[in-house]
Amino acid sequence: MRGIFVTSTVTACAAALTLPLLTTPTGAATAPAVRTAPAAGSSGVPGSTRSLPLVPLAGGDRALGGRTAERGLPPREVEPFSLVGIVWDSAAAELRGQAQVRTRAVGSHRWSAWQDVQIHDDDRPDLDSAEGASGRRRGATAPLWVGASDAVQVRVRAETVTDRTPEGPAFPVGLRLELVDPGKDPAPGPARPQGQAPSVPAAAPARAAGEPTIAASPVLGEEEAATSAVNSLLAPLGATEIPARDKDGSGADVAATGPGDAPVKSPPQDPDTDGAADVDTTDDAADAAADDAADGADQGSRYVEGGGYIGPRPRIVTRAGWGADESIRERGFVYTKTVRAAFVHHTASGNKYSCSQSASVIRGIYRYHVQSSGWRDMGYNFLVDKCGTIYEGRSGGVAKAVMGAHTLGFNSNSMGIAVLGTFASSTPPTAAVDAVARLTAWKLGLFGRNPLGSTTLVSAGGNLFKKGTKVRLKVISGHRDGYATECPGDLLYKKLGKARSTAARLQGR
Q1: Which residues, 6 or more positions from 4, have their beta carbon under 8 angstroms from its beta carbon?
Q2: To 10 degrees, what angle do helices 430-446 and 496-507 make?
Q3: What pTM was computed for the model?
Q4: Where are the extended beta strands (E) located within 249-358?
Q5: What is the C-alpha separation between 147 and 345, in angstroms, rounded?
Q6: Distances in Å between the alpha carbon of 55 and those of 227, 307, 353?
Q7: What tens digit of pLDDT does each residue of 266-318 get?
């Protein structure tokens, strides 16, 4: 599968240190002001990632098929971190067993209980994409948020050997612990008048007096400017948030759906209805068009004055708002032609975070995806926290068909929305489910999608559908619908019906 690659250069021009081993623990009327924030990336964003090898643990049972049955890390003091994960050299290899960590909070002498690390990180790039074929990609568990900590202990136990146990080692080569320090949140700077342009060779779009205050960065590096420029039709260059907009005005957001930062003069044409070549040409256009007509996708009439079937635009915190270090990701953006479906995920990173920590959690996941797992950028297109705040994920523009790395086999012509947390046995907050509905009502509406409908996607290859298989999926699906996984957790999955009906209502259906 090939995506449409847009370089950020063009867009921008257009607009482990460890400490000694521990002993075993015991347990307005004028133009509205624009809030500014220090620029990231070019001056360096606080935060770091450190790796520690996992070694055979003394006293571990070595009787399982001649294999060392337990690897890990004895209790160790380290530099502060807040998120952990386990990685290994080959993305094709599998870690078979159980992984657990416990940590010590900064400023405390008490250790946490053992916490499970989800062994299988099922959010991945498509195998036939440039990102999936990259030699940088590594095997990885899901990340786990543990909060600010300065000591860690790890144990990884091999699965019990049975007649059905696959051949090969339980522990892949290069097994190591990743300790991620997300750094501090970007501090807001002084406000500047709305009309004052940021210090980059581009001017912010004109906005009517009375519109809400928009946060923006005063000085932008090349990559920061490029990342912001693709949202410049929705918010000023350098904005740290994209403001909400009512349904009557949201139809104009169609202009921001094209690749790059050039405005689209007409609604985006879906290849299923106009016959245009998609980046994934294995789908049969005539069959897909018929499917969509049957589902009431309202192709060809998705944009009318007053918003049509486009929901109100929700407030979205940009990458500048949550403090993305644009220097660590790959340059440029990758697009597909359209957005036919939204896959809902949970991050499986645990629920022990406060809403004030959400930006830190996201920075940690971003670093883990890019620096630890070897991806080009954050895997998800959007993230939602427990308070219902929506965050921009992968760079390329919130209104655009940005190719993510969230649902192996179905990253083309879709978007991935991850709710921060783990929802196998915990009920997702109502605010988070409502945010998923608000986001999908707007974003799917920009591409003419009915949240209550179904659509056809073609698998790029995964553990549930072979490459080339045409699959009927709900327009709002759970990760498990396209890949054999527990994601997004049973209790979040059960809420998707509510999200679909709410999104449809917000679209005016």
Answers
A1: 259, 279, 334, 335, 336, 337
A2: 50
A3: 0.81
A4: 316-317, 333-335, 341-346
A5: 21
A6: 40, 58, 30
A7: 444 444 433 222 333 233 444 444 444 444 443 333 444 445 799 999 999 99
